[in-house]
Amino acid sequence: MAWLRAFFDFFAGDLRADGIVPARGHTAWLVFFAAATMAFLAVFALAIAVAAGRLANTWSQEMAQSVTVIVDGPQDQRQAQTDAALRVLETTEGVASARALTPQEQRDLLSPWFGDEIPIENLAIPQLIEVIPAPQGFDAEGLVLRLQGEAPNARFDDHSAWRDPLVRSARGLRILAAASLVLILATAAAIVSLGAKASLAGNFKTISVLRRIGAKDAFIAKVFVRRFTLRTLTGAGAGALIATITVAFLPSAAATAGFLTGIGFTGLGWLLPLMMPLLFALIAFAATRTAALRLLQELT
Amino acid sequence: MIQLEAASYRYDDTPLLSDMSFGIAPGSFHFLTGPSGAGKSTLLKLLYAELLPTSGQVTLFGQPAHGMDRDQVALLRRRVGLVHQDCAFLDHLTISQNICLPLTVSGKSVTDDFAELLAWVGLGHRADAFPPELSGGERQRAALARALIMAPELVLADEPTGNVDWEMSQRIMTLLLELNKMGTTVLIATHDLNLIRTAKSQVSTRVLRIKDGHVQLAEVDL
Ligand SMILES: Nc1ncnc2c1ncn2[C@@H]1O[C@H](COP(=O)(O)OP(=O)(O)O)[C@@H](O)[C@H]1O
Ligand SMILES: [Mg+2]
Questions:
Q1: Structural domains present in chain B
Q2: Could you read off the pLDDT of B55-84 as tens digits, one per residue?
């Protein structure tokens, strides 16, 4: 907490103290650009993480809502098996409704793949039963067992065969994006503290004069920490702003859109990239403070 | 005020200062002398805790130097005014900003005494100049003013007249003597025996001499 207080304290700043150590152009711009670049990348990593997370949720929740029972086997048993399966479904707790698709509906489902002219009656197309679960869901394993008993030609398909790998890869992508974000932040911290250390070393004479006239380490460190934190804040602010605008101009990120059109933020999520400069500043503060206090002990 | 007990210091294998035991009483006026390279500057560094004795004890304002952390060292230095031969100003600040720097780093505001102090060292007209624009004598007097801005109890001066002519060194000595009359403890390291002789006629002073790595009380006649 004392630390957080120190963080806010120093924005109040001591202008007289700031003038004691001359600012030199070089590291200032290096840190500014590094922070801008890192914040730009960080916003993209964040956008990908958020989009992947949204996608994983969509696939794992919404798709789970639709379940299909497929009745296969010899044509002459098809109707009896379908009726049996429907009876099982109707008496299953957690199933809101179950309905056999009409031949026309089945034709409509297939036409995008095979064209309109298919003689569906002559093909060995299985009968599909659309199952809509009640909100609390049903016991899938129990249903599978009962279908096996009552309608052995009926198969239960909750789409997990294709959905699970997609959900898995979306989650993997999210972890990857989050890891990138952590690496980007760590790199930013390293660059900023390196810049601060170079600046401290370059001002060795000034620092030793200040120590001799009774300056505490905290006072000297503050001059550098403040300078580098503000530089990081403005750099990261610029980078994050450009990245956020770029993300905003990517194709829309409505919650239902597919992945490639879905990189971006929705609603309050837009506040996330704008938090990035603050996060960068906080990290720069911690990194330069630690580096400065340690280096001061070594220098004088 | 300051007490050394069997204090020694070595930079490397060969001891530079050995077995020093002496004290500096409040209000006293001391000279520290010895040939160039004898270890005068090193001894002063022990007295403001820039160096710690490699053996023995140095006690500064009642506190053992060994036990001080870095913040305590900073606080100690606010009670000690340092005047160096190489005045070590910050060249991007004006003379008055440089002189007030000890106030700035300790979070104090500039007092009315400042103008008085500036006039006393004869720099009233140079307040807004930058250090490189000053002559050697002006720099030395500015360094003295910076050492005094915090109203220190002890002034340590390392060759304060090293870079100036005889007349100016007399002027600086006069300032230090006046300061001592007002109650400040003064210790001046110098290899200039003439300086000591002229001071001896005006103040009762003790002369410490470093010889062969030991500190001795010098004979009256130098
Ligand atoms: N940082 C240092 N490291 C090693 N030797 C030093 C260092 N500073 C001073 N010396 C040596 O210690 C000796 C005394 O130096 P110094 O205290 O400056 O003497 P004085 O001030 O009496 O001229 C000299 O021989 C000098 O070379
Ligand atoms: Mg010397």
A1: 1-79+152-222 (3.40.50.300), 88-151 (no CATH)
A2: 999 999 999 999 899 999 999 999 999 998
